[in-house]
Every structure is written in structure tokens, then in C-alpha cells.
Amino acid sequence: MRVLVITTENPFPPRNGITIPVFNYIKKLSNNYEVDLLIISENPRKEVDYSLVSKCIFLNEFKLGTVFSELTRRKGLFELATDTKFIEKIAKSKYEYILASPISVVSIAKEIATLIEKKYFLSSKVIAAISDSYTAVLRKKKEFGNFKDAIKTIIANFRSLYMGKLESKILCNTYEVLVQSEEDLNWIKRYGNKTLNIRVLTNGVDRSLLCVKPDFNKKQLSVLFVATMSSNYYQSKLLWFYNNVWKKLPNNNFSLVIRGKGLPINDQRFHELLNDNSVVYNDLFADSISDIYKEGEILVAPIFKSYGFINKVGEALAAGLIVVGDKSAFNAINNVKHNVNCLVSTNAKEFIVTLSLINQNINSFIHLSENAKKLAGKQLMWENKLIINGQKN
């Protein structure tokens, strides 16, 4: 059986919220199926290992500005400028399943599936793997501070009304929609077609993380902040943590290790942070995901959003780090319990208190590491995830 996976970023190597699930979908499916990969991107990286797929196809994306494209494209924001000949060429492979992720490539998946059914009289099922509901992202987006921030929030709310209709239209007539959490499922049901076949399939983590052994006997423990630092969202969360938590920690014996590419080091906002002797910024490429989590004993996750699975939190739990995060950091992870396998802090004051207690007596918290590994081993391994219902294990 042949499966086509369509995505917008090269999933090799896996490194963020889009590429991590796509990479693991391919890895799991390639055990039993012949998998082809279609990458739709302005600048796809071609010099990587594609041994997991039978064939890799590249298509340059025609891209418009976000708001402009929402209002002008014939079929809305998620429409790609592709010609009929390209679609026909792809359809010749007669794929039984087409897995599209993120939502922006579902339209082209449906076009390919429709042509396969019309021309070859074969059923081609489209699976839409949604990392986050774009409508939910917009509705939950809140800017705080000045008048300009308030205007941004109002615009995001108006855009969400329009985007809800677009997402609903795009997801209709798919075989299945995969979402990261119950929150995402509820959002899609709220604005979408009630007949959609939606299934919660959270991301998993790599089993190699279970072999990481944090050294809690170190003289100076390291606190990890892991994120795609080119993201404005995570830049703001880093600054929030540094200014409201890190600088106010009493008798701070920790080091703060910031892990992730893209931090604008020449930006004046980060000048104090990057010149702080207690802070280390590491943007070097890691040979494996395990190497990242060997750099710390504690992970801080001030996420403050109520949708999606937070990859770094699942990975840190598997690695046995002590994870300190707000409630939303543990989205879509069942059986997480405060002071059993994690530590929940809902605001800056609680983050300060929690980290101070760890700083005073790390031995009182080592049980969290052991319990986190047990939880991840039972619940979060990728090999236990069913990508296609009814597939062989």
C-alpha cells in the first residue's frame, strides 16, 4: 500500500512542532507501507537523509501576505498555486492514503485524492493532521500592555471568525482529522462540520530519551529553557521568565541554559539576558534529541496557552528532568500530577517559590524524575501511536 505525506517543512531532521510529528508519522508508517513525501516550501533543504521515504518531491510555494491572502484568494488562505499537470503527475501513483500536515496543505491533498478517484476509480483517503487549530490560536491570542496591543487582540478575534469558516470548509470530506488535544477537538467541533471524524492523537517522544540520566548531584544545577527562539511568542515568554522569575530568585545557584535557534542576539531587549553570567545561550545543532536534555536537570515551561501538545514538556518528562510549568504546559498528557511527576506553577510568584525550594533541597524532588520517566514510558512513546486506524503494528 502506498501513502503520500504532504507537509510544508522538511521533516529531516525533526526540530519543531510541525516537523516532529511529520517525521514520526513517516518513521512509523514506513515500517508497513511505501511512503512518498511531498514538501511544499519556498526554500526546501534537499541535502539530508531521505532513506525513510521511497520518493521525495519538492514544490515551491506561491506565498502571499497572511491577511491579504485571507481576503483575496479564491478559496481562502489555505490555497496553494498549483497547476493541473502537477496534480495529475502526483495522482498517477494512486495513493490509498494521503496524510497532510499542517492544515495549509489539506486542500492540495483533497485535490490529489479527488483526481485519483475520478481518473483511476480508486478510493484515496485524506487524513488531516492538525498541529493546532488556527482559529483556536487566533481566539486565544491576547496582547497586553498598550493601546496597540488591544487593537491586535481585536483584529485576531475578527480574523478567527473568518478563519473558522475556512478551516471548516477545508476539513470537510476528509477521511479523518487528527488533533493534538481535546481542546483542539472541541474548537473544531464548535465551528466545524459536526459529522467530521476527529481523533485525538497527541505527539509522542523518542524512546532514546528514557536513557537520559540527569545528574542531580552536580554542584550547580542547570535550568533549561527549550524553544524555537525565532518565534516571537517564545521570545516573549523567555523575557517574561527572565525578568519576572530568574532575576528575582533569591540565592540563585542555578545556571539558565537557553536551547534553540533564532534568538536575535543583537536585539536590545536581550542585551541584559545575554550578558548575564548565569545565562548560557546554545544554538548549536544537536546530533540527537537526547543531547539537548542532557544539558539540564530542570525544564521550565511558561507556556500559557490552552491548545496543542507541548513537545519539549513530553520530551523532558521522558528524559527525567524536573518539569516546572503552568497548567497548559501539560496539555494532552494524561495522569500528570503536581508534586508526583511534575510541578505546576501558575504565575511568576509560584515559579519563584518552586525553583527556590528546588534550589534549597534537590533531594526532595528527585522522585519527580523517576515518576516522569514511568509516565512517559507508558503513555508517550511514538511506537504506541496509531497513525492510520487499523494499520499493522
Highlighted features:
393 residues, alpha/beta, Rossmann fold, seven-stranded parallel beta sheet, six-stranded parallel beta sheet, 13 helices, 13 strands
Reconstruct the topology from this structure.
Elements: E1 2-7, H1 19-29, E2 34-40, E3 55-59, H2 66-72, H3 84-91, E4 97-100, H4 106-120, E5 125-129, H5 134-140, H6 147-171, E6 176-179, H7 182-191, E7 198-200, E8 222-226, H8 232-244, E9 255-259, H9 271-274, E10 279-282, H10 289-293, E11 298-301, H11 311-319, E12 322-325, E13 343-344, H12 348-360, H13 366-379
Parallel strand pairs: 1-2, 1-4, 2-3, 4-5, 5-6, 6-7, 8-9, 8-11, 9-10, 11-12, 12-13
Helix pairs in contact: 3-4, 5-6, 11-13
Give the low-confidence spans. 62-79
Please give the largest β-sheet. 7 strands, parallel
Ends apart, CA distance between termini: 15 Å
What is the typical, i.e. mean, pLDDT?
A: 87
Lateral arrangement of strands in the main beta sheet: 3-2-1-4-5-6-7
Number of helices: 13
The CATH topology of the largest domain is Rossmann fold
The helix/strand class is alpha/beta
Shape: globular
CATH H-tier superfamily of the largest domain: Glycogen Phosphorylase B
| Count of β-strands | 13
N-to-C order of helices and strands: EHEEHHEHEHHEHEEHEHEHEHEEHH
> Cα-atom Rg, whole angstroms?
22 Å
Question: What is the gist of this entry?
Answer:
This protein has 393 residues and is an alpha/beta fold. Helices cover 36% and strands 15% of the residues.
Structure description:
The protein is α/β, with parallel strands linked by helices. It has 2 domains: 2-204, Glycogen Phosphorylase B (Rossmann fold, 3-Layer(aba) Sandwich); 207-379, Glycogen Phosphorylase B (Rossmann fold). The chain has helices at residues 19-29, 66-72, 84-91, 106-120, 134-140, 147-171, 182-191, 232-244, 271-274, 289-293, 311-319, 348-360, 366-379, and strands at 2-7, 34-40, 55-59, 97-100, 125-129, 176-179, 198-200, 222-226, 255-259, 279-282, 298-301, 322-325, 343-344. The strands form 2 sheets. It has a 7-stranded parallel β-sheet. It has a 6-stranded parallel β-sheet with strand order 10-9-8-11-12-13, with helices on both faces. The longest helix is centred in the middle third of the chain and has 25 residues, at 147-171. Mean pLDDT is 87; it is low at 62-79.
